[in-house]
Amino acid sequence: MATAETAPTRPKTPRARKAKPKPAAARPLDPAESQIFDLRWQRSAPHLLGPLARIYGEVTDMDALSARLRDLLERYWAERPADLKALDLERDLNPDWFLDQSMVGYVFYIDRFAGTLRDVPAHIPYLKDLGVTYVHFMPCLKPRPGDSDGGYAVADYREIDPRYGTMADFEAVAAEMRKAGISICIDLVLSHTAKEHESAEKARAGDAYSRDLYRMFDDDTMPKLYERSLLEIFPDQAPGNFTWYPDIGKWVWTTFNEFQWDLNWENPEVFLNTLETILYLANRGVEVFRLDAVAFLWKQMGTICQNLPQVHDLLQALRQATRVACPGVIHKAEAIVGPADLVPYLGQGRHAGRESNLAYHNNLMVQYWSSLASGDTRLMTHVMRKYFPEGFRNACFATYIRCHDDIGWAITEEDCAELGGITGPGHRTFLANFYNGSFPGSFARGADFQYNPLTGDRRTNGSFASLAGLEAALAASDVHGVDLAVNRILMGHALIASFGGIPLIYMGDEIGLLNDHGYRDDPDLAADGRWMHRPFMDWDAVARLSHGEAGPAAWIHAGTRHILDRRKATPELASWVPTRILDTGHPHVFAFARPADERTLTAAFNFTGQHQTVAAAALGIDPHLAFEEVITGRPVAFHGGGLHLPPYGRAWLVPV
Ligand code: GLC
pLDDT tens digits for 469-494? Predict the structure, then answer.
């Protein structure tokens, strides 16, 4: 049995915890600032303290916790720079600012995009030209040395990765970006720290306060019980969820890699410490926090320890806290989970409008790839209609086709059974084979990732362009194949630009960068196949674009830029407009309507390499009326009452 000190589950009685050193006294607030703070506290306190009481009420003196929280928030509000306070005011008055159709995101590793932080501003014109208003710097806080899971094993949350620069550099770049109308998003890894983090090292050295921040066990009794229902995240390189450390005689909960120690969110100190990190970084100019791997925050015996209700209370509490001390920031949840579990991250029921502002729409991403492989959109239509509400309060999805991670084939048995004709395991196997290129006739050039012999599941790596057929077509000098691949990519970008939510372009996808196998030569990266789709930016290719060179990079770039430009000019594509999935009855066309106040935009996508015609009536539109296609700006001709879509065609229709 684990001893009390290891506290595998919620402790029964409040325990005295060793206090941390007292912070320096806050700068006194002037009366106006003090009044603003009080009003914000009053506004948010019930929505902040309510969830915290549900989580910690039994183990903590809530009055004391509330007082500590208020002090912490006030201290960081007092320190917040004037220009960020101005941003707070603006966004407090317009809390739906990020739902505007002008929002476009772009995601990159600082070194792979620019070099160091100081080199980033030189590329602001490139980003502006593409239409970008939000950039996600992939993990940029100081990681552990060596393999750091791409920076997701953070050793110091108050320092920038020295390879990229310093915190002062970050602040300067953030200010410059802000002036250019670009918000910076960074990763905040809150489910675990690197084992080299100061707290983990203190825990290792026996410090009681620090040990309570992690999940440690004296023997394997509890780990074995938990393992009965847990899944494995990296079965290849890091099997199991616990690690034994003989030097300290403890098992440590390590969901991801051995060097990533899970934090113990049952301890309110973890909440306070994480919040303090967020406030610190917000005051340096972070505007969007990508809260990493949030599904895993809470553990409960007998479950897979993902998506538990307490996670939603914790996320709401973090969000309501930032609404007090830095309301200019928003939170994005990274929960790569099945559709039924995903929706609650954008706030449902008592959390509506109060939890995360953004969440990755990984189901849209998976369904895009699934329909592209099969040429059949019925599963996509079924899943999108079944699980997803038409909209959210003060929240929307981040829509994307590729990111730095692998694609996990989140296709459920139940959904396949409801549709008929396919099975979950069968379709998942088909997709993995299609995208590793082994399925006969596949256009994709990806690779398997994390084969799990217990479940038979494989995930997939590969860049957008390589998975969409560009690599294979170029290798075969297949001109028609290149054209099809370009259109698959542009259809994907048109889909994420119109679906509702902030479209995120993954660096290089706008110029069709292919898989990069160079990572195999770097011992710190070689074991992680995801580096295959994390290439370096090809600035030479960009230079060639500006010299007017034709080719796939130029076509994809011009097409993507144009799609994003049209998005910005189309108010029906704002994220506050509902997204209503249409059941067109057409097996190859995916469609939805965006019913805005003035008029409805109808979007349709052909997922095949053949021409398709979909009845206007099935799209809910009258073919006798005049329509314009927004991307091309051309009038629409309905032939025989049908809308014609060329191979991988996309159409955004509005009545004129
Ligand atoms: C997130 C990241 C992924 C990382 C994991 C563990 O899922 O996107 O790259 O491996 O968290 O931190």
Answer: 999 999 999 999 999 999 999 999 99
Cβ neighbours for 58, distance < 8 A, ≥ 6 positions apart: 10
* Residues 421 and 459 occupy one common structural domain: yes
Question: In a mutational test of the pocket of ligand 1, which residue from 154, 405, 530 has the highest number of ligand atoms less than 8 Å from its CB?
Answer: 405
Known catalytic residue: 196?
Answer: no
421 and 447 both lie in a single domain: yes
Q: Is the pTM of this model over 0.85?
A: yes
**Is the Cβ–Cβ distance between 448 and 460 less than 8 Å?**
yes
| Ligand 1 contact via 237 beta carbon (within 6 Å) | no
Condensed to tens digits (0 to 9), the pLDDT of residues 336-377 reads: 999 999 999 999 999 999 999 999 999 999 999 999 999 999
Whether 529 and 545 share a structural domain: yes
Assess whether 292 carries a catalytic annotation: yes
Q: pLDDT tens digits, residue range 538-570?
A: 999 999 998 988 999 999 999 999 999 999 999
CA gap 440, 446 in Å, rounded: 14
The answer to whether the Cα torsion of 643, 649, 654, 656 is positive or negative is negative
Supply the DSSP symbol for 570.
Answer: -
Residues 546 and 495 grouped into a single domain:
yes
Active-site residue (options: 334, 376, 471, 510): 334
Distances 389 to 339, 395, 450, 572, 579 between C-alpha atoms, Å: 11, 12, 32, 17, 8
152 Cβ closer than 6 Å to some ligand 1 atom: yes
Q: Do residue 404 and residue 521 come from a single domain? A: yes
Atom of ligand 1 nearest to the CA of 234: 10
Site to probe by mutation for ligand 1, drawn from 137, 141, 147, 149 as the one with most ligand atoms within 8 Å of Cβ, is: 149
- Where helices occur in 404-551 by DSSP H, the ranges are 413-419, 424-435, 464-467, 470-475, 479-498, 539-546
CATH number of the domain bearing residue 636: 2.60.40.1180
Tell me if 260 is assigned to some domain: no
Quote the mean pLDDT of the chain. 95
